[in-house]
Protein backbone atom coordinates (compact mmCIF):
# COMPACT_ATOMS: atom_id res chain seq x y z
CA UNK A 1 0.00 0.00 0.00
CA UNK A 2 1.34 3.42 -0.95
CA UNK A 3 1.04 5.70 2.10
CA UNK A 4 1.08 8.88 -0.01
CA UNK A 5 -2.29 10.55 0.03
CA UNK A 6 -3.34 9.03 3.36
CA UNK A 7 -4.23 11.47 6.12
CA UNK A 8 -1.52 10.07 8.40
CA UNK A 9 1.20 10.46 5.76
CA UNK A 10 0.07 13.97 4.82
CA UNK A 11 -0.01 15.08 8.48
CA UNK A 12 3.48 13.65 9.02
CA UNK A 13 4.80 15.44 5.95
CA UNK A 14 3.14 18.69 7.05
CA UNK A 15 4.76 18.33 10.49
CA UNK A 16 8.19 17.84 8.92
CA UNK A 17 7.75 20.89 6.66
CA UNK A 18 6.60 23.01 9.60
CA UNK A 19 9.58 22.01 11.75
CA UNK A 20 11.96 22.64 8.86
CA UNK A 21 10.48 26.11 8.30
CA UNK A 22 10.69 26.95 12.02
CA UNK A 23 14.32 25.82 12.23
CA UNK A 24 15.23 27.92 9.18
CA UNK A 25 13.53 31.00 10.64
CA UNK A 26 15.25 30.54 14.01
CA UNK A 27 18.63 30.46 12.26
CA UNK A 28 17.90 33.47 10.02
CA UNK A 29 16.57 35.58 12.90
CA UNK A 30 19.18 34.48 15.48
CA UNK A 31 16.45 33.29 17.83
CA UNK A 32 17.41 31.17 20.81
CA UNK A 33 17.30 27.47 20.03
CA UNK A 34 14.25 26.42 21.98
CA UNK A 35 12.60 23.11 21.20
CA UNK A 36 9.06 23.37 19.80
CA UNK A 37 7.35 21.89 22.85
CA UNK A 38 9.20 24.28 25.14
CA UNK A 39 8.12 27.22 22.96
CA UNK A 40 4.48 26.09 22.93
CA UNK A 41 4.61 25.58 26.70
CA UNK A 42 6.05 29.05 27.26
CA UNK A 43 3.21 30.47 25.17
CA UNK A 44 0.63 28.50 27.14
CA UNK A 45 2.07 29.65 30.48
CA UNK A 46 2.25 33.25 29.24
CA UNK A 47 -1.35 33.21 28.04
CA UNK A 48 -2.48 31.74 31.37
CA UNK A 49 -0.37 33.81 33.78
CA UNK A 50 -3.51 34.77 35.68
CA UNK A 51 -4.20 31.07 36.45
CA UNK A 52 -2.42 28.58 38.66
CA UNK A 53 -0.81 26.07 36.29
CA UNK A 54 0.59 22.71 37.35
CA UNK A 55 2.49 20.00 35.49
CA UNK A 56 -0.74 18.02 34.99
CA UNK A 57 -2.22 21.02 33.14
CA UNK A 58 0.68 20.88 30.66
CA UNK A 59 0.11 17.13 30.20
CA UNK A 60 -3.53 17.73 29.41
CA UNK A 61 -3.01 20.78 27.19
CA UNK A 62 -0.42 19.13 24.93
CA UNK A 63 -1.61 15.51 25.17
CA UNK A 64 1.75 14.32 26.48
CA UNK A 65 2.69 11.70 29.03
CA UNK A 66 3.64 12.42 32.61
CA UNK A 67 7.27 11.38 32.01
CA UNK A 68 7.53 13.67 28.96
CA UNK A 69 6.11 16.54 30.96
CA UNK A 70 8.47 15.87 33.84
CA UNK A 71 11.48 16.00 31.50
CA UNK A 72 10.09 19.13 29.82
CA UNK A 73 9.73 20.91 33.17
CA UNK A 74 13.26 19.87 34.19
CA UNK A 75 14.73 21.25 30.94
CA UNK A 76 12.76 24.48 31.21
CA UNK A 77 13.94 24.98 34.80
CA UNK A 78 17.53 24.23 33.76
CA UNK A 79 17.21 26.76 30.90
CA UNK A 80 15.92 29.37 33.33
CA UNK A 81 12.46 29.68 31.78
CA UNK A 82 10.30 28.54 34.68
CA UNK A 83 10.34 28.25 38.44
CA UNK A 84 8.27 25.96 40.61
CA UNK A 85 6.41 27.36 43.59
CA UNK A 86 6.05 24.59 46.10
CA UNK A 87 2.72 23.67 47.57
CA UNK A 88 -0.70 25.20 47.35
CA UNK A 89 -3.42 25.74 49.88
CA UNK A 90 -5.25 22.56 48.82
CA UNK A 91 -2.29 20.23 48.14
CA UNK A 92 1.24 20.88 49.37
CA UNK A 93 2.68 18.31 46.91
CA UNK A 94 1.64 20.25 43.82
CA UNK A 95 4.14 22.69 42.34
CA UNK A 96 2.88 25.71 40.47
CA UNK A 97 4.77 26.52 37.25
CA UNK A 98 5.70 30.21 36.94
CA UNK A 99 7.48 32.02 34.11
CA UNK A 100 10.76 33.80 34.81
CA UNK A 101 11.70 37.23 33.50
CA UNK A 102 14.01 35.47 31.02
CA UNK A 103 11.03 33.51 29.66
CA UNK A 104 8.87 36.62 29.32
CA UNK A 105 11.67 38.37 27.41
CA UNK A 106 12.02 35.33 25.14
CA UNK A 107 8.28 35.29 24.46
CA UNK A 108 8.38 38.97 23.53
CA UNK A 109 11.20 38.23 21.07
CA UNK A 110 9.23 35.35 19.52
CA UNK A 111 5.92 37.23 19.09
CA UNK A 112 6.66 38.83 15.69
CA UNK A 113 8.14 35.55 14.47
CA UNK A 114 5.04 33.57 15.51
CA UNK A 115 2.82 36.13 13.78
CA UNK A 116 4.84 35.79 10.54
CA UNK A 117 4.74 32.00 10.80
CA UNK A 118 0.95 32.01 11.09
CA UNK A 119 0.72 34.38 8.11
CA UNK A 120 2.93 32.04 6.06
CA UNK A 121 0.90 28.98 7.02
CA UNK A 122 -2.42 30.60 6.11
CA UNK A 123 -1.23 32.38 2.96
CA UNK A 124 -3.70 31.95 0.04
CA UNK A 125 -6.23 30.17 2.28
CA UNK A 126 -9.54 31.89 2.94
CA UNK A 127 -10.99 32.15 6.46
CA UNK A 128 -13.71 29.58 5.77
CA UNK A 129 -11.13 27.02 4.63
CA UNK A 130 -9.05 27.69 7.73
CA UNK A 131 -12.07 27.23 9.99
CA UNK A 132 -13.04 23.99 8.21
CA UNK A 133 -9.45 22.71 8.52
CA UNK A 134 -9.44 23.44 12.26
CA UNK A 135 -12.76 21.64 12.69
CA UNK A 136 -11.46 18.63 10.76
CA UNK A 137 -8.26 18.54 12.83
CA UNK A 138 -10.33 18.66 16.03
CA UNK A 139 -12.32 15.64 14.84
CA UNK A 140 -9.13 13.72 13.98
CA UNK A 141 -7.66 14.52 17.40
CA UNK A 142 -10.88 13.39 19.08
CA UNK A 143 -10.77 10.15 17.10
CA UNK A 144 -7.23 9.47 18.32
CA UNK A 145 -7.71 10.55 21.95
CA UNK A 146 -7.53 7.75 24.48
From TrEMBL:
Organism of origin: Marinilactibacillus piezotolerans
Protein name: DNA-binding transcriptional regulator, MarR family
Pfam families on file: MarR_2 (PF12802)
HTH marR-type domain span: 1-142
Upper taxonomic lineage: Bacteria, Bacillati, Bacillota, Bacilli, Lactobacillales
Highest taxon in the source lineage: Bacteria
Keywords, ordered alphabetically: DNA-binding, Transcription, Transcription regulation
Single GO term (MF): DNA binding
SMART domains, per the entry: HTH_MARR
Region forming the signal peptide: none
Amino acid sequence: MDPRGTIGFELRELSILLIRYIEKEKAINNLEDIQSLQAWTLGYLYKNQHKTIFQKDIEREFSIRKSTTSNLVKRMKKNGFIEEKKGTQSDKRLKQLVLTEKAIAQIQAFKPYVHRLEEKITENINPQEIEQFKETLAKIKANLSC
